[in-house]
Write a structure and sequence with these properties.
The protein has about 1000 residues and is α+β, with helices and mostly antiparallel strands. The protein contains 37 helices and 15 strands. The relative contact order is 0.05.
């Protein structure tokens, strides 16, 4: 938030400042390029890439018509299948073709009304038009209501009972019009185009109506527009009725939207050909034959329905249409050399009659044949499942590891992503007694899908399939968000985009139904979207600043001004769009509302709306606590170790890192960024091994895989001391606590809490080493005690710091052979002397504890100094402070970094500060005894603290010569001892002895 505010201030000040135009142009261009094309997250670009409002609106309407609507009744199923099939059958078998049909036969009377055009056309042209306009009005009303309700439901305002009733009406009317009776409705509209084209252009039914003149031309136009609307609605609804839920109880459930789309388009072609091509009987018969053949092929090869017997049923029904259309093809192409005469029966009439009876007697065997072929092909397509069953059994016996990509690829080589989806249907198996999914089938389906992801890692359909598997089979909707985001990034088609849309809607409903509110994965995505808003916000501010600086040039080009204005407007529009997209998803986020208010105030210059956003932000709260979003397993008991440890976590002081099962960092808080010295946004999406030194970084991913495979935790729910790796490749110690937040197996999410190492004991210094004694890092007091900065000892053998290196090396060998039980009570210890860079050696007592993991251990050397820490500084012959300890810095109310490389006279009050350089020159050239009152004589003097207060101290100064390169240098080691005011007054007091006796 501070970044936005700072940019706002800079943009305000830029309105009244001028400068060199070239410099301004270069700096602004670099800043704009850094934000718009730098190494930042691409959330804003993802939002812009998803700006397909028409498709989003269509998806909302499609979801509205099919949400919570499924066929679970066998009676309803029988009605739909029979009615839909009779409509298709009537397209092929009707009195307009060469069939010899007994119109008085009861079977014909039962199915005559299916295409209700035949019920209306004998009533006259006027009645037909009245019915046509009524149908048009109904279709337009349904489409309009669907769009309006979809817009209303965008805010999830479905609590109104009248709205629920309207939704129920629209869903049922849409199902009847665009899913069940659409063939009849479409046929009714298309019949308006059935004319004697190329002859007199009159209609085949109403010879008094010319198809190229009014009023039929206008009526035909209305019918054509309505037919297009019906076709588009049917296509959308056919895709919408397909569901990715592999455990759906819908009897017509179909996870293959592509086949449904192809079949629907073939049905449309059948209607148009059957109704409009009466003038061309032979091409008509050929096209009518091709459509069922292709539909049968798609039905058998893709098996679109989730239930196997439903696939066999429709394959058989389509085969019946193939058989009927083949007889129609024979009627049109067999030439018996006899005039076409209805009055005189002959060979042609007998042939036509035999073909007609052939339909009646042969269609049922054809249906059985098609169903049988479908059954055989279905079983053959399921045969690869045996490979996965064997692999699953081998994994249970420990002979195979299914976590690696190579192992998954070796099970079976998929031919296409569609085959992955087909084999994954094995999860659709239920226990007859409890009607619950079988765990073994669910596990087998998971192996199939994971193998498919290994074979097609970037295929959107496979990623969506896996997300639906996680949502519906594993019942872990929160873990599916990452898969959906990956699918959205790999250029999915519109069908896959609709699958992502539906899965996201399921996630949204699962969050609203839960008591936890915003779940962890949603929080991660929310922070990502907010960063996208801030990025777009910065770009708009910089574009605004660039425009005003361009205007304030001494010489202004109109082209440059127009370019800057265009860039500013485009940046504002982009940022506004990004904000609105994110606000649609998170309308109650206080932090987002606050920065949106700043955008309205500083970029859009709308303070009235900005004040409303600020007020709403205050009402909602400007931040969310990450710890409130971490959920617990149901079997976790209150007061358990995990719960107690979590209650100690403080986001302000503890670093928090959340990773997934692959080690990818999902969320890093500010404290963790500060600990590892990275900038905000640099760690999300990177592997956690980036923050570990070798060999932990090379082996951490294998540790994660091993835990997923075996379930044996080595570091979970335990406090461990570890070593972290900063961005500058320096190391630091930290206390680490890790726990699993959610998910299982490959969908697990983990949280690690990093705490600063406890340095409360002022007489103990800790050093972290490898098992061989190589120093990794040390705490901040190491330099205070031994004169060597902590960063300078990293990488050195610890034995090189001791007065007796051989004894320390033997100590490390013995410690490496010890067990954890021996190290726990501090039994591994050593008393020795350690070298000081400026002073004599220091006696210390060393105890050893072990840190790291069970497989990669570290040694923690707890060095207890047997003397008090000293206030010490080292000054060169020019008066520059080269080294200072923390106790000295604390005495002077400053920090060590502030003391280092400063001049000694800066710590002295006047007039000593002005004369100090002269005194140092005299000390270097003179060997006289220090004068009384000099700091070298041990007298009490004053040093200035950072606040300006004078601190009385005594100094003990020793000097030594050191060779730095070719020139010798003089070093003064200054021990600072705090003095009291009484001591100062004692030295300044004049003692007089008065003798009263006169002499």
């Amino acid at each position: 938030m501070s970044s936005v505010g700072s940019e706002s201030q800079s943009s305000r000040s830029s309105f009244s400042t001028g400068g060199d135009s070239s410099v301004i142009s270069d700096s602004d261009g670099a800043a704009l390029a850094n934000i718009s094309g730098g190494d930042q997250d691409d959330s804003a670009q993802d939002l812009l890439d998803q700006s397909k409002g028409v498709w989003d609106a269509a998806f909302s309407c499609m979801l509205l018509l099919t949400k919570n609507r499924s066929v679970t009744s066998y009676r309803m199923l029988a009605f739909r299948v029979v009615f839909e099939y009779l409509q298709l059958f009537r397209l092929v078998f009707n009195t307009r073709f060469l069939w010899v049909i007994n119109t008085k036969f009861w079977v014909w009377k039962c199915m005559y009304w299916v295409l209700f055009r035949f019920l209306v056309w004998d009533m006259g042209y006027t009645t037909y038009m009245e019915a046509l306009y009524s149908i048009c009005a109904l279709v337009l009303l349904l489409v309009l209501l669907t769009v309006v309700i979809a817009v209303v439901l965008k805010k999830d305002d479905s609590s109104n009972p009248w709205l629920k009733r309207l939704i129920w009406f629209v869903q049922n009317a849409g199902l009847l019009s665009f899913s069940i009776c659409w063939v009849s409705l479409f046929d009714y509209m298309v019949f308006m185009f059935t004319c004697h084209w190329g002859k007199d252009n009159t209609h085949v039914k109403w010879s008094d109506q010319n198809c190229t003149s009014m009023p039929h031309l206008s009526n035909m136009t209305v019918a054509g527009v309505t037919a297009v609307i019906i076709v588009m609605s049917v296509i959308f609804l056919s895709v919408a009725e397909c569901s990715g839920n592999l455990l759906s109880n819908n009897l017509l459930a179909s996870p293959v939207a592509g086949t449904a789309l192809k079949t629907t388009l073939l049905k449309v072609v059948m209607v148009v050909v059957s109704t409009c091509l009466d003038e061309f009987p032979k091409p008509q018969a050929v096209l009518i034959f091709i459509c069922p053949v292709l539909s049968t092929y798609f039905q058998i090869t893709s098996s679109p329905y989730l239930l196997p017997w439903m696939n066999h049923l429709w394959a058989g029904l389509w085969t019946g249409l193939v058989y009927t259309s083949s007889l129609l093809l024979a009627l049109n192409f067999v030439d018996l050399q006899e005039p076409f005469d209805y009055e005189e029966p002959g060979h042609l009439l007998e042939f036509r009659t035999s073909m007609t009876y052939g339909v009646l007697y042969g269609i049922f065997p054809a249906i059985l044949l098609g169903a049988s072929v479908s059954h055989l092909v279905y079983r053959w397509r399921l045969s690869p499942l045996q490979h996965f069953r064997r692999a699953q059994q081998a994994a249970k016996e420990g002979r195979m590891q299914l976590e690696t990509v190579s192992a998954l690829k070796s099970i079976y080589r998929f031919q296409s992503p569609e085959q992955v989806e087909f084999l994954a249907r094995c999860v659709h198996a239920f226990d007859p007694a409890t009607d619950q999914p079988l765990p073994d089938a669910a596990a087998l389906g998971g192996v199939v899908i994971q193998a498919g992801m290994a074979r097609f890692p970037n295929d959107p359909s496979v990623l969506v399939l896996y997300a639906n598997y996680i949502i519906h089979v594993r019942k872990q909707p929160r873990a599916a968000r990452q898969q959906l985001q990956l699918a959205a990034k790999h250029e999915p088609g519109n069908i896959d985009r609709y699958g992502i849309f539906c899965a996201m809607d399921t996630l949204k409903r699962s969050r609203s139904d839960s008591d936890a509110g915003l779940d962890l994965m949603a929080y991660v995505d929310q922070q990502r979207q907010i960063r996208a808003c801030i990025k777009a916000h910065k770009l708009a501010l910089l574009s605004q600043r660039a425009f005003w600086r361009c205007v304030m040039r001494d010489s202004l080009s109109l082209a440059d001004m127009l370019d800057a204005l265009k860039a500013m407007q485009q940046a504002e529009q982009t940022a506004t769009y990004v904000y609105k997209r994110v606000l649609e998803r998170y309308p109650q986020n206080g932090k987002l509302l606050k920065i949106w208010g700043r955008f309205q105030e500083w970029v859009l210059h709308d303070p009235a709306r900005a004040s409303k956003s600020y007020a709403e932000a205050v009402k909602r709260g400007v931040s969310e606590n990450l710890l409130n979003l971490t959920t617990y397993d149901q079997d976790e008991k209150a007061g358990s170790f995990e719960h107690e440890e979590r209650s100690k976590v403080d986001e302000k002081t503890d670093g928090i890192i959340i990773i997934d099962a692959t080690g990818t960092m999902l969320l890093v808080n500010k404290t963790a960024y500060r600990l590892f010295a990275y900038e905000r946004g640099e760690l999300e999406g990177k592997n956690i091994s980036l923050l570990m030194p070798s060999p932990f970084s090379e082996r951490h991913n294998s540790y994660l895989k091993n835990y997923i495979t075996t379930g044996v935790a080595k570091i979970l729910n335990q406090d461990r001391q570890v070593v972290g790796l900063r961005k500058d490749h320096t190391m630091f110690p930290s206390d680490l606590w890790v726990r699993r937040l959610s998910g299982t197996g490959a969908e697990s999410v983990y949280m690690g809490v990093l705490r600063a190492v406890d340095e409360s004991d002022p007489n103990t210094v800790r050093v972290w080493t490898s098992m061989t004694g190589l120093i990794l890092c040390s705490d901040s007091r190491f330099g205070d005690w031994f004169g060597v900065p902590a960063e300078d000892v990293a990488g050195r053998p610890f034995s090189s710091l001791g007065k007796r290196p051989d004894a320390l090396e033997r100590f490390f060998v013995e410690a490496g052979k010890s067990s954890l039980e021996q190290a726990a009570p501090g039994q591994i210890r050593c008393s020795t002397s350690m070298l000081h860079k400026f002073l004599d050696s220091i006696d210390v007592d060393i105890t050893v504890t072990f840190a790291g993991s069970d497989t990669e251990q570290l040694m923690v050397l707890n060095i207890r100094c047997l003397s008090d820490t000293q206030r010490l500084m080292v000054v060169d012959d020019k008066g520059s402070i080269l080294y200072a300890t923390s106790p000295l810095a604390a005495l002077l109310s400053t920090k060590v970094l502030a003391l280092t490389n400063t001049q000694m006279q800066a710590l002295l009050p006047p007039p000593a500060a002005q004369m100090h350089k002269l005194w140092m020159k005299e000390m270097a050239t003179s060997s006289k005894r220090p004068q009384l009152g000099s700091c070298r004589s041990g007298s009490v003097v004053h040093l200035l603290s950072a606040t300006g207060a004078q601190m009385p101290v005594r100094l003990a100064i020793t000097s030594r010569d050191e060779a730095t390169g070719d020139k010798p240098s003089h070093r003064h080691i200054v021990k600072v001892m705090k003095a009291t005011k009484e001591e100062l007054q004692d030295e300044q007091r004049l003692k007089l002895t008065v003798i009263t006796e006169a002499r």
